[in-house]
Amino acid sequence: MQFFDTHAHIGLIYDDPIKQISVIQQAKQAGVTRIISINNSLHDFKKEYAFLKSQKGIYHAVGVGPSEVNAPGIDWIKSIEESAGLPNVVAIGETGLDYFKQYGDKRRQIELFITQLELAQKHSLPVIIHNRDAGKDIFEILQDRLPDKGAIFHCYSEDARYAKKCLDSGMNVYFSFAGNLTYRNARNLHETVLNIPLDRILIETESPFMIPAEFREKKRTMPAYLPSTARFLSEMLEIGLDPLAERLWANSCKVFGLPEE
Questions:
Q1: Is the pTM here over 0.85, yes or no?
Q2: Using CA atoms, how far apart are residues 197 and 188, in angstroms rounded to an integer?
Q3: Which of 97, 153, 146, 163 is nearest to 128 (CA)?
């Protein structure tokens, strides 16, 4: 049995490369053999990529999140273009809109989001979407600009109705659930996983955030904790853990364009 962590900020767990490698080794011992490393900042991407590029099973996304819209001193487009073609870069992101923390202004957030959707299309990559209180605008933008390779709503936070609306519109989208799925009060997430096709579900840790309920005494999430979320999902869907793990693995490999073996 093997698991695929589709979203982990390895550089935020520890900034020490030796400790990062330890995190990866612990994950593999827990059966988490593939991880998508998400850069904390585009400024940090190349350093993080260099640290991790020799690690088997580690893949990368490159992008600009809403929190960076006002960060100075970098040519976003040039930097993403330079990195998108590197080995094991399999997605653009995370990118999207965040109206909760109100980074910059909406216009600037939307411009950066659209630019990265266009880059994902240009480089034939899926896009990893950050959505916080911005579901309406994201849906409307994706209707016209969704890349051919699709999108992942990471750490999904909307409800079942929103997911169904996306699927009914014909969008090639996936919904990734983090450790907060295991919280008793996450009823919108529970309802969602019970009402969307299994072949559209992914799981992630969102390390070092979103600690699964089983590990709530810990200070940070690790990729090694991913099986806890899988077990919870298995019980909720009344599907054996082995077949569920196989399905989640296949979904993850498909969206990121990776072989299953």
A1: yes
A2: 16
A3: 153
Q: What is the pLDDT of residue 73?
A: 60
Q: What is the DSSP letter of 127?
A: E
Res. 143: pLDDT tops 70:
yes
Q: 188-191 contacts: CB < 8 A, separation 24 or more?
A: 188/157, 188/158, 188/159, 188/160, 189/156, 189/157, 190/236, 191/159, 191/160
DSSP, residue by residue, 102-118: T-S-HHHHHHHHHHHHH
Output b/e per residue, 96-118; b: 16+ Cβ within 10 A: bbbbeeebbebeebbebbebbbe
Q: How far apart are CA 253 and CA 107, in angstroms?
A: 34
**Cβ atoms within 10 Å of 185's Cβ, excluding its own:** 8
Distances (CA, A) of 204 to 29, 36, 119, 196, 230: 17, 9, 24, 17, 9
**What tens digit of pLDDT does each residue of 240-251 get?**
999 999 999 999
Q: In what order do the strands lie in the sheet with 32-38?
A: 3-8, 32-38, 58-62, 89-98, 127-132, 151-153, 173-177, 201-203
- Collect all residues with Cβ–Cβ distance below 8 Å to 76 and sequence separation of at least 6: 42, 64, 112, 115
Q: Are 219 and 20 in contact (CB under 8 A)?
A: no
Q: Where are the beta strands (DSSP E) in the chain?
A: 3-8, 32-38, 58-62, 89-98, 127-132, 151-153, 173-177, 201-203
β strands within 178-241, DSSP E: 201-203
